[in-house]
Amino acid sequence: xxxxxYAILRFVMFRTYSFVxxxxxxxxxxxxxxxxxxxxxxxxxxxxxTNYPQLGGKGLHIAHMLWGGLLMLASTVLLLTxxxxxxxxxxxxxxxxxxxxxxxxxxxxxxSDNNYFFRxxxxxxxxxxxxxxxxxxxxxxxxxxxxxxxxxxxxxLLRESTTHDLNVEDKHRLLYYLLHSDRSSHMTQMLEKLxxxxxxxxxxxxxxxxxxxxxxHSAYARFVLKPWFAKGVTVFxxxxxxxxxxxxxxxxxxxxxxxxxxxxxxxxxxxxxxxxLSIVSSAVAGxxxxxxxxxxxxxxxxxxxxxxxxxxISIFFVQVFSFYHHQMHAFLGLIxxxxxxxxxxxxxxxxxxxxxx
Length: 357
Prior knowledge:
The chain is mostly helical. It has helices at 2-15, 25-49, 64-81, 85-103, 121-141, 147-160, 168-179, 186-197, 208-223, 229-255, 265-269, 273-295, 300-326, 330-356, and strands at residues 56-57, 60-61.
């Protein structure tokens, strides 16, 4: 899936010359994704607490899908009208909320009776978000920028200086972009001279998400040297693996009506296909986590990769079937797993940096 996304991206980017990427696009996509997930959670919780009220009357019902379309329209108008980078960040959040509000009513448009409560809807929404997550991640991991893109982004930074002074951090970024632009270009040389002469103001305080990322990297650098760190990571993922295997064991015991033995083939055939796939995927994720626990003494990086694979299987398979059966309660599991996956990705990057240093 990731390779396919990258192939499409390369075809679009390199067969046509009108698409130039924003170097900070991953931050904008992250804002969009998080806002969309939170929008669905907020809507479902609100509707559940208020007993699913309807806006309208006398035969009319104004579905909240329309409000989602309105928010996405507002985001588009802002992006087409204003140049400010702050507007782009706000528009990313607005578009995410709009998309989440829109896609929440998917059940109404895939059923003949416009059934908002159609049982597989939440699982389908989950799959849509997983595909978005994979696509965004593919864009982020294959982000080798061209000299033209570095030059274009440096011009964007200079344009921002027309509305407010560049701070030290932005000036360093500007010089970095120009350093990776075409050094033989007359425009690059002129912009570099201009950038050097610009007087920068003190760096602004980092934002909330930037502070969280910085704190995570600093904490990892401190904790990784502690003797208890590897044991703590191992215990955490082994406990999760044991929990997955416990679910598998309970399913087998229930299938055999309390008898501690393997189920017969006829009994297995009587299971729902989603139950079978849920059990198998839980077992695979558990085995990978246990293998990671054994590997952590040899190589933390190898262990983290195994833990990440276990987490991905849990997200892409176990959670899908959980959504089908438990509906919105499974969203909490999605949030926890995505947070754990983000932490693992950060730990893998930090570990690679430590090994290369």
